[in-house]
Amino acid sequence: MTYIVKPKFHHPSLPVNELGFTHRDYEGSISTLCAGCGHDAISAAIIQACFELNLPPHRVAKLSGIGCSSKTPTYFLGSSHGFNSVHGRMPSVLTGANLANRDLIYLGVSGDGDTASIGLGQFAHAIRRGVNMVYIVENNGVYGLTKGQFSATADRGSKSKRGVMNNDNSVDLVAMALQVGASFVARSFSGDKAQLVPLIKAAIEHKGAAFIDCISPCVAFNNHPGSTKSFDYVREHNEAVNRLDFMAPRAPIHVDYKPGELEIVEQHDGSKLALRKLHADYDPHDKLGAMTYLQERAHAGEIVTGLLYVEPEADDLHDHLNTVEHPLNELNEKELCPGAGTLAKINASLR
Amino acid sequence: MPIERVNDFVVRFANVNGSGSASANQLFARAVLRMGVPVAPRNIFPSNIQGLPTWYEVRITEAGHLGARGGVDLMVAMNPQTWDKDVASIEPGGYLFYDSTKPLPASKFRTDVTVIGMPLTAICNREYTDPRQRQLFKNIMYVGALTALLDMDVTAVEKLIGEEFKGKDKLIAPNLKALHIGRDYALEHLTCPITLTVKRADAVRDRIYIEGNSAAALGAVYGGATVCAWYPITPSSSLAEAFTRHCARYRIDPQTGRNRYAIIQAEDELASLGIVVGAAWNGARAFTATSGPGISLMQEFLGLAYFAEIPAVLFDVQRGGPSTGMPTRTQQSDIVLAAYASHGDTKHVLLFPEDPAEAFEFGATAFDLADRLQTPIFVMIDLDIGMNHRLCRPLAWEEKRAYDRGKVMTAAELDAGKDFGRYLDVDGDGIPYRTYPGTHPTRGSFFTRGSTRDRYARYTEEGGPYVDNMQRLLRKFETAKGLVPRPVRRDADKPTRHGVIYYGSTSPAMDEAIVELGERGHRLDMLRVRAFPFHQDVADFVADHDFVFVVEQNRDAQLRMLLVNEQSLDPVRLVPVLHYDGTPITARFIVRAIAEHLDALKITPLRKVVS
Prior knowledge:
The structure holds two protein chains of two kinds.
Chain A: H1 38-52, E1 60-64, H2 68-71, E2 81-84, H3 90-100, E3 105-111, H4 112-117, H5 120-128, E4 133-139, E5 142-143, E6 149-150, H6 173-179, E7 184-189, H7 193-205, E8 209-215, H8 231-237, E9 238-240, E10 242-247, E11 262-266, E12 272-277, H9 287-299, E13 303-310, H10 317-321, H11 333-336, H12 339-349
Helix pairs in contact in A: 1-7, 3-5
Chain B: E1 5-6, E2 8-16, H1 21-34, E3 39-44, E4 53-61, E5 72-77, H2 83-88, E6 90-99, E7 114-118, H3 120-127, H4 131-149, H5 154-164, H6 172-189, E8 196-197, E9 208-211, H7 212-222, E10 227-230, H8 237-250, E11 262-265, H9 269-281, E12 286-290, H10 292-297, H11 299-308, E13 312-318, H12 335-339, E14 349-351, H13 356-373, E15 376-382, H14 383-386, E16 389-392, H15 411-415, E17 447-449, H16 463-481, E18 488-490, E19 498-502, H17 507-519, E20 525-528, E21 531-532, H18 536-543, E22 547-552, H19 558-567, E23 574-578, H20 587-601, H21 606-610
Parallel strand pairs in B: 1-8, 2-5, 5-6, 6-7, 10-11, 10-12, 12-13, 13-15, 14-15, 19-20, 19-22, 22-23
Antiparallel strand pairs in B: 2-4, 3-4, 9-16, 14-21, 18-20
Helix pairs in contact in B: 1-4, 1-5, 3-4, 4-6, 7-8, 7-13, 9-11, 17-20
């Protein structure tokens, strides 16, 4: 664990983005996770994605539950407000925050214990409502902070570091997200930054509930032979269905693939997703097909990664609730209070 | 001898749930009200939608005693299932009105009550062929008969029917017809009027007639709530539903037709409060409505909101506990649960409205208090107030009233270089400044967490900063004492050594009881507690008296516990008076309990006992 304060100075020639921010402006304090933790790689990918998207850091709200993964929002976007809520309850807190101010970007960070065990209900319901958010599960199949107990995403038949066999079936969060209506579903691997960064960028630009299940090996408790969430195992069994390039709105499209190999998907804000198909039979717009494909490959012992499903023109919770464009937290007495005259009429109607 | 009373008796309707009786019974209550005579109606209903017994009680009271009285003077017995119990509950000299279509043996009646039979079913079967109409119009028919029996102004009922079905005009004529069939039958075949009568008066004045839950929801609208998250639970569901209704009417942007509010029916109470906490953290005024079982589930988030200092408003419409308890009965039994909700050292602010008018007022004020104190605020209603129509003073709102959003640091203040420490007590009142997310590109961001931190919201597990923070939270709680509604004291006409403390829905019964106690020669000063933490007035009141009765609707004297615990008051001087069978407390009960105690204190000289 590192406990020194991160120095603020940086190299003068560090590249800046369109807002004049350097990569460092998107960082947080130094991680206190174990050296080599997959979660730190995901934090780095989030930083990279926000830098490349030219996001004003303070316009992001980062929310989490409890656990190793939920500690990570401290380690990125130091200028953003963060909320380390209670175990398994990040989805409801994020939902409320989103209702209060629809103009911010909401990044929910959770773990497999936080989401698939204690928070399974809240996870499903936040997705079900179409909350406009990026929901990332840093999935290592194990409880790290309490030292190595299985979580609900641990595969049946996998072995813990102490040699205990997991006999329970695992929860497949991707399948569940698809089933309850997420409009952007991806799976990635913390060890594959080239795949992960564009997925995070696309998810941020996506309107609606965007879910990324990111396998993130626990170097302390789940990176041994017999584990199905170790670096070695995931590398060996990773089957990417596509490769994604993210393009901001109005960006010119430069692609050098042959027709048929590449599909351009345009999202509601004009951003474009350039999808290079790695599996000819995989269609990320066909939800039923995706569910079947995922089940088949899982049965064959493969971990399917990539952009698994996207509905580019999705609605979000605010659309369903028909709320005003202006953030609710900025409305004042004039807009909210019906006033004394109306109350006199109400009184009269109650006699 | 039949009871002889004008504008002062209790009518109880015994019905079957789902038979359409509720609207007919309400029509009767409103008709009395329109005659200028106050009524206090109460629903006594089971946790059921169709088939089980349900009662509707109307206390007709020109004197304005709005508490439950106990006993029945006129029973409208429409439910064979509960016949025996219903007949037994009539006061001697009272009346029994029943459907005499099917003859009943004499053993089914009492000789000390006047029996009035009317073949309602037979008349309905004669007049209507549709089974649903037979059922519904039977209810209107007995209301028609009552107008004759009680010598009521039938035009008041006719007018109400016209108002009730405005827009559905086709229904007016058939309802009027049923009303008159009932009335005409009674006038022709029954002795009218009986010795219980309603006489036009002017005792209602400008008062309004509203359910507490609806008034509280309107308070939330006026108080500026924009986010509501809830989970259905009796007896609070109608609060969230009323908020939905009020918002649809008063919260639509006239230009765009879009909503200036967001209401989520959550998956459970945990998520409900989670949504409220998230919204309030992000600067919106947010609330949930629930009952005891919901508060039990919300403990975790209440601890977080207390410790991370997030405003939240909770309407707790209390019912009978523990566990599922008595879901459709009333109690004041969540007091301790709410006051100390969650693990660790916590204390919460509670408000105790006495009626719908205060439910509205406190419902709005709760949002100012939550923002000012940056903590959860409980509005402790109960089923008796929440789910019954109650006559109360008109709802009031000062036109120029502005919302108190509390200490929120703005981008301009941050730019001016103001020191921002999320948990820094700059004013000595224990209340720190907060910033809304997204305020400033480089300043004012902080990390909210339920774990310990220093004054600048930096994570730490050091004992010093932890104690510093916990002490500041206590200072904040002290500040709350001066901000919450003050207790209302009403002294007896002459000095007395005895006092009584009460709160919430006990008010009308207490008001009535104090008159009767006075008539029996017992003088008491009264203090109505309206909030926790307690104002200094409460300790002063107890100090002013030898002993003080504490009247509550729970088993364990929960408010008394708080008085002993938080004010270090001598428990011997606080005498509990406890009513907790699930029915609303009555003046009769209070009088009996207090008078017994005071009579026992009267020392009878020994020689008198001997002689």
